[in-house]
Task: inverse folding
């Protein structure tokens, strides 16, 4: 992954999907005097993002995208924001630059889903661009270590946090999910293909029907990156919706990997957690030795 | 755990909950010339079981239970079949023998859910009885190794099987769940507090909405015991319902731990699997060394 120091002085292209994150990144880059251009993804980028974008391009306009990158002198590429609609082949059959690269693109996109983003990275790198991540250009947006909101975890919460953290590490070793929930000294839910939100909802359901028992608010959601996760394009993220779900599941708090996870809409997220009495903690990933003993 | 050889010549008390398993065990014990008595749990045991039972006792009749064990000379106890209703304190406040032991029982039942059965075992052991499991008295009912039905796994299925098996081992190390599903070279679901059935249903839902993609029937459910699981009372089990759910989730097959898991209603279960084109495999648990390398 690129060295932070080497990103100074290079113009960054923000290829922006949905959500408020692209604008937050733009603010952070502006704040640190970085030079950048925003390319809004058609049908994905929010209005706010589109208003700040230099251009707007659809999936089939890869030729135009590369032309834009060349014309504007962007050397680094940052892929940021959500993508709600996976591009299908019809939308990819676009301009000449796309068609020219189609064999490469098809080769790259074939295969397992989970490495799709890694393959997209390679597509840019093959054209001589460098793909950077939030960690490289705006590390201040990542979760810091320690208690981040107003609430403090209690003794039982720390125990649940440790357990769920250990579970996410095991999950990570198998390249499965990023998140786990422990309640009352027991890991009760592990993230698979359903994603973090659905996993928290399941936990809420299990509490409702009494398959997870707890007195009052109890349990901790931990979200951490997988060991081999490419944090340039796939950063573990929590946001206001995560807090909302954690509250409805009756959890005591959430913990995310310090320096390796993002709190989207940080202010609002922490405010919601505070007012709901939920703690938010940034945890350092234990070293392998630390993880080995029980 | 008791040595199999030492169970010969001892009279066994089958304390029987619901399902057809108690009768299957009874048949197996009869077949091998074992001496036993059936005690049906009131409100739980099936009619078939009740018809063969020497007595029927409710949760509050622990005094009567011990009297029965003493009178009939039972030395070993086998807890078998499901319990749909957890006993509450009202139903426990029963006969004098129960009341006398109440402080011990309450002490034993307090604490985490998952070790409840271990605590029940201790209650029997404290009175001088030995708790045995299916492995000890009817090992022929456990899954054997190899392909058990008519369908054979294909190359991709073996890969998914390996992946899901590895995942159950990681789960087991953390004492979480017994089951995992891999589809298309990726672990997509891990069992937590929701149980195996709910996990398979989740997998079906994720396939329906396209979060798990597969061509035709694909994916393998693996169910294996946790390393510290007390197989006397908590044997991983699959049955006709498991097959039904696996079919509706579009899985290619299921694998269970050979010698460490049970196929309930074996004939019907395998028949259903065969007619649905689902494979059923008994897998040996890999040794730790085998599990370490990827």
Result:
């Amino acid at each position: 992954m690129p060295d932070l120091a080497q990103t100074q002085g290079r113009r960054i292209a923000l290829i922006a999907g949905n959500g408020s994150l692209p604008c937050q990144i733009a603010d952070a880059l502006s704040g640190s005097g970085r030079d950048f251009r925003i390319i809004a993804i058609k049908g994905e980028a929010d209005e706010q993002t589109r208003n700040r974008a230099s251009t707007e391009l659809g999936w089939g306009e890869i030729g135009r995208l590369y032309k834009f990158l060349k014309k504007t002198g962007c050397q680094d590429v940052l892929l940021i924001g959500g993508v709600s609609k996976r591009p299908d082949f019809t939308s990819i059959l676009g301009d000449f630059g796309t068609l020219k690269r189609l064999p490469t693109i098809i080769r790259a996109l074939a295969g397992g889903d989970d490495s799709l983003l890694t393959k997209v990275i390679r597509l840019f790198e093959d054209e001589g661009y460098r793909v950077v991540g939030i960690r490289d250009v705006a590390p201040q947006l990542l979760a810091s270590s320690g208690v981040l909101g107003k609430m403090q975890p209690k003794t039982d919460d720390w125990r649940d946090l440790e357990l769920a953290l250990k579970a996410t590490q095991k999950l990570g070793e198998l390249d499965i999910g990023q998140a786990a929930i422990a309640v009352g000294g027991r890991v009760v839910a592990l993230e698979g293909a359903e994603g973090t939100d659905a996993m928290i909802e399941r936990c809420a359901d299990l509490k409702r029907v009494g398959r997870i028992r707890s007195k009052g608010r109890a349990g901790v959601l931990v979200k951490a990156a997988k060991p081999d996760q490419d944090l340039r394009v796939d950063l573990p993220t929590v946001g206001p919706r995560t807090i909302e779900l954690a509250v409805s599941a009756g959890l005591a708090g959430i913990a995310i990997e310090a320096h390796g996870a993002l709190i989207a809409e940080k202010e609002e997220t922490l405010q919601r957690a505070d007012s709901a009495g939920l703690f938010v903690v940034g945890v350092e990933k234990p070293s392998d030795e630390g993880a080995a003993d029980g």
User: Anything to note?
Assistant: Chain B has two domains: 4-138, 142-292. The mean pLDDT of chain B is 85.
